[in-house]
Every structure is written in structure tokens, then in C-alpha cells.
TrEMBL record:
Protein name: TetR family transcriptional regulator
Annotated HTH tetR-type domain residues: 10-70
Entry keyword annotation includes DNA-binding: yes
Keywords associated with the record: DNA-binding, Transcription, Transcription regulation
Entries under Gene3D superfamilies matching the protein: Tetracycline Repressor, domain 2
Pfam families per UniProt: TetR_C_44, TetR_N
DNA-binding region as annotated in the record: 33-52
Entries under InterPro entries matching the protein: DNA-bd_HTH_TetR-type_CS (IPR023772), Homeodomain-like_sf (IPR009057), HTH-type_TetR-like_transc_reg (IPR050109), HTH_TetR (IPR001647), TetR_C_44 (IPR049444)
Amino acid sequence: MKVDRQEQDDARRERIARAAFELFARSGLDAISAQDIAQAAYVSRTNLYRYFPSKVHMLLAHFEKAVQASRDDAMERLHAGANPQQVWDKVTARMADLGVRYRHLVGAVGQAVLGAPPEAGRPGAPERAPGDGLRTALTLAALVQPVLLAMQAQGRLRPEANVQMLSVLLVDAFILALLHGGHRDQREVLRDWQDRFSLLMYGALAPESTARGELKD
């Protein structure tokens, strides 16, 4: 019985997050009310706040699920022996596409993940979600880390390189690029990310990898 109740709670939480994201994707975060989400998810407002304290928490919950799906796919490919660079290209292409498609939601996600407080007094400033923001940041870093570990195992990264720190730095750099880059399409995002990736990874690459120019498109 306890397991069934937990499954019901998990299913309801997922339904709320999915319904909220679909509304946010169409109209933006500020235009959607808690009542709109409750109606779309077929729950009461009381139940809504039982699962999520704010709209940003709902947005991050759905975003984390998408990131986790990408990580599962990347891990499956790596375990099957795929080239880490090809896996990396697929991961970044998907994230870049999402960043452009839902650019009107990037600010709320970025501020939560990077821990930046909303501008004081600015109308419609996104709600903060410190706990969930940290969890989302860790989820993103966990998406990047397996690819870097695979590169390190192949001798493409220096053995002493701190992969965990590199993962966090790359996530922060990529989010900042989306927040401030003004990209028009996925190709521009990928080009910007490639430049930042090259800069951050230069000192971590094994010397022979640098000589081969492995960071080039």
C-alpha cells in the first residue's frame, strides 16, 4: 500500500510538472497562474503547492527529467562503445536546440541554477528555487561528467584533470552563454559553446589531443 501511494505521488508530481511546462512553453512563466496549472493538471491549488512551492520548482522538475533522459541516452551510447566526441556532439546539440526553442524560459532556469538573485524591484522577476536550483545544476554536471570521464579513459584528457570540477565549469559557461549570447539559432549556440569548451578544456587536454586539434568542429 505504501509503495502504491508513493507511485501515485510520483505520477501526480510528474503530471503537474509536465502540465506546467506545456503552459510555460506556450505563454511564458509570468503569464501563467497557479490556478492555470492546477486546472491543466487536474489537481487543486492545495495539492499543487503540496508538491511544488513555486512555478520555478515546477519548471526545474520538468527540465531535470529532460536532462536525465539525455544522460541515460549518453550513458547507453558510451557503454556500447560510441566515440565520446560523438556522444558529446549529440548531447550539446539537443541542449542547444532546447535552449533556442525555449529561450523565454532560459532566464528562470539559469538564475536558479547559477544561484543569481532576481533583480531587486524588477516587475515579474523569477522566483528563486535555491534547493532545486542546486539539484538541477548537479543533474547537468552529471550529464557532462560521463563524457569527460570517457575522454580521460581514452587518454584524451590529462589523468590528473579534475573531471568533476570541469563538468561544473562547463555547465556554468554554457548557461551563461545562453543567458547573454543573443543566439538566433542552434548553430550559433553550438559555435559559442564550442569556443567556451575549447577555452576551458585547453589545459585539461592531453598534449597529443591538443596537437591533433580535437576541439575543432
